[in-house]
Amino acid sequence: MLPALAGRLGRLRAPTTSRMHAALGGPGVQDFHINSSGNPTNYEEEDEVPPYTPAMQHPAYVVRKTGVDLLHDPWCNKGSAFPKSERDRLGLRGLLPPRSLTMELQAARFMEDYYQPKELIPPEDVKLGGVTSAMARRWKLLQELQDRNETLFYRVLVDNFTEMAPIIYTPTVGWVCVNYHKLYRRPRGMYFSAADRGDMLAMAYNWPQQDVQAIVVTDGSRILGLGDLGVNGLGIPIGKLDLYCAAAGFSPSKVLPVVIDVGTNNEALRNDPHYVGLRIPRITGPEYFQIIDEFVSAVMARWPSAVLQFEDFSINHAVPLLERYRKHHLVFNDDIQGTASTALAGLYGALRVMGLPPAALGQQRIVCVGAGSAGMGVVKMIASGMQKQQGLTAEQAADRFHVIDAHGLITAARSGVADFAKPFARVDPAHEGEDLLSVVRRVKPTILLGLAGAGRLFTEEVLAAMNKGCPHQRPIIFPMSNPTSRMECTAEDAMRITQGRAIFASGSPQPPVTLASGRQVAVSQCNNMYIFPGIALGAYLGQTRIITDRMLMAAAEELPRLIPPEELERGLVYPKLSKIRDISVSIATAVANAAGDEGRLRGRMREKYAQGDEALRAFIASSMFYPNYSALVHLPSGIEE
Question: Can you give the residue ranges of the Malic enzyme N-terminal domain (predicted)?
């Protein structure tokens, strides 16, 4: 028996077909082992087992670091190539994009950039997106500075805010998001995905900062006017939080950009070998809300005092998510509430330009192109302003609006209108589906708002009809869509066709316009960065627990008060961005005062509120981070941590 057994130690014999079929449920299965490449090697009867050969190199490399520290070690870092097993045992879950790439794909991406740098934007793409090669090069230069010296990065940004804001945010951030999977070099922020269900709270503890004050999150479903960009949408929270730090003085070490990856319906991205997100169609329905619920519960459990800002969620999710969480956490949606506050502030500014009081808002006729969550958020906020300033009823305020979507004018005759748009549907069904030009000619609006993200909808004919219909006051034209390629018209179009009469503000920056007469006309940028940093700052310092409509209205009313007379004379409806930190202090003070009036302030802010505006403003200003080099002191690990 023993000799016979010993004679077979070096041999394998395949089991009979019937026996394998019984064990595994299928015929013809052979014995196999996993070879060094990870693939099965089959052995027929009487095949020899290969001899054992000791490895020439150690099969594993011992590391002493985990998490972010490991990712910042250039010798040990594998970037997006870390497999799931290493992500779990090295504390990397959530710090890297969900999909693992091979080294071959990483090398191919590098060589592609080596031969054709991404920042060399073709002229035809410049025309479409408004982002030039120079802007892309500057963005890349700023990212490199941020990677090696974050304090200097923010000092440069604060000192040059007006020039650099379009580089770190709109319009350049749109180009960044479209190309994010090809631009990705170093992890920044966190990634939660549908594959992480059940583990999100544990993953939140992989983030090294114990005190996070502000979180901006997107699911990548509606990035600016560019549509579904999946995990590439992380570029938006990163850019937003750069503004939080530069404009409102949040500490860069205490902010967290996040993307929640629930798949993407962008087939081109799913098929791109370099895409680092889940390559599945976007999850919807109850399963989607369960994923977002787990994320919100996880981050609010670890950082209960943080401001949580939702950004660029699709129309069908943005409003329900806001309503789902806003009464429980310090949550707001900038696309809905920030855009609305900024737009209302701009209209108050336009009235000031014409020497009219805020109450004159209720006398305006408004056409809004775009009936999504952002567009209707703006309409609702303006209607609330009319009710407050002139005492209109909700029905009277709604009658001042004509809302147009992709199917034309919305009336009560249309079925399937979203609940948030129904109060502003025109009662008379006779004009259902009427096109924009016909509406402008018939209604003669004094205010034309663009929030459709569909490009040049304000044609020469529309602008000419708008100008003709406003003989007694200057037409107010706000094409608010981002990025530049999605704007409804340019400043040059509006000023040329209205002969410089228009009061103009756009979502993305536009240069001053020189008319045929040689007169230069200034234009404003209707950008949320005027509002959202100050709202977040006031709410966070005030520990208000929630952000109310009264707080948002206070921000909208405060901003136009900051425009100096000389800028009003030039037709500007917002103050200069060069004063952004002072603006944020003023907005935060107004938000805190509104919260104090509602009895929502806690901590030291409640004490300062009782002492008056000067004490409140001074406390807010002194709480803001300013980028300076501080003295550094070393303490061994574990002491005072």
Answer: 146-326
Note the CATH number of domain 530-623: 3.40.50.10380
Please list, residue by residue across 607-635, b when 16 or more beta carbons sit within 10 angstroms of its beta carbon and e when fewer do: ebbeeeeeebbebbbebbbebeeeeeeee
Q: Does the annotation flag 312 for ligand binding?
A: yes
pLDDT classification of 257: cutoffs 50, 70, 90:
very high
d(CA 218, CA 234): 7
- Does the active-site annotation cover 240? yes
527 is in an annotated binding site: yes
Q: What is the pLDDT of residues 197-255, one digit of tens each?
A: 999 999 999 999 999 999 999 999 999 878 999 999 999 999 999 999 999 999 999 99
Dist CA 128 CA 138 (whole Å): 19
Tell me the pLDDT tens digit for each residue of 474-486.
999 999 998 788 8
CATH number belonging to the domain at 186-329, selected among 3.10.290.10, 3.40.50.10380, 3.30.559.10, 3.40.50.300: 3.40.50.10380
Work out the burial of residue 271: count CB atoms within 10 Å of its CB; fewer than 13 is exposed, 13-18 middle, 19 or more buried.
Answer: exposed
- The answer to whether the 186-329 and 337-526 domains have the same CATH topology is yes
pLDDT band at 123 (very low <50, low <70, confident <90, very high): low
Q: Cα dist. 51→48, 54, 141, 482 in Å?
A: 9, 10, 54, 65
Q: What is the C-alpha separation between 556 and 637, in angstroms, rounded?
A: 47
Q: Is 399 annotated as a binding residue?
A: no
Single out the catalytic residue among 154, 169, 244, 275.
169
Question: What was the pLDDT predicted at 44?
Answer: 56
Closest CA to 251 of 264, 241, 265, 259: 241
What residue ranges in 8-163 does DSSP mark as E strands? 32-34, 40-42
Nearest by Cα to 378 from 388, 386, 368, 387: 368
Separation CA 533–CA 546 (nearest Å)? 16
Give CA–CA dist 420/403, Å, rounded.
Answer: 12
Tokens representing residue 296 in the block: 């919100």
Residue 48 assigned ligand-binding role: no
Q: Which amino acid is at 34?
A: I
Q: What is the pTM of this model?
A: 0.87
| pLDDT surpasses 50 at 12 | no
35 is in an annotated binding site: no
pLDDT tens sequence across 54-111? 877 777 888 999 999 999 999 999 999 999 999 999 999 999 999 999 999 999 999 9
- 445-460 mean pLDDT: 94
The residue with tokens 């500057």 is: 138
Write down the catalytic residue from 154, 180, 240, 244: 240
- Catalytic annotation present for 579: no
Q: Is 160 annotated as a binding residue?
A: no
Can you give the residue ranges of every domain in the chain?
186-329, 337-526, 530-623
